[in-house]
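Mods, move this if it's the wrong board.
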Amino acid sequence: MSIKFFNWFEQNQRYAYAYMRIFVGGALFIRGLLFISDPHKLTLLAGSEQYFWMYSYIAIVHLVGGVLLILGWFTRLAALIQIPVLLGAVFFVHLSQGFIASGQSLELSVMVLFLLIIFFLFGSGELSFDMKKNKNNS
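Not the wrong board. Structure tokens:
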């Protein structure tokens, strides 16, 4: 491979953070769609209709927060509203399953939680409405 190929990536490293934000936002949005696409499965996951509201809340948070992360719009808020959901996923759902479980596993949930904390602390980065808004205010 040509060195020029890698030079372009090195000169544009600032976009890597934005691509991660966009990908995580898209994955969370899709997770939200999966939650709402089958209400019966959602009720089974909740364990009873008593907890259906909680899983409905999670679906809405993933849908709205995912779109906001994709756009890089109110990124810190979008990450913040997702952090409690991911904490619940890590400590109440996946921790008992342990590492290397089939399906969505503990390590994947921990990674998404870690990235959400990074987005909350550092903001949206390039390719975002937040950055565009900040440039217009300067």
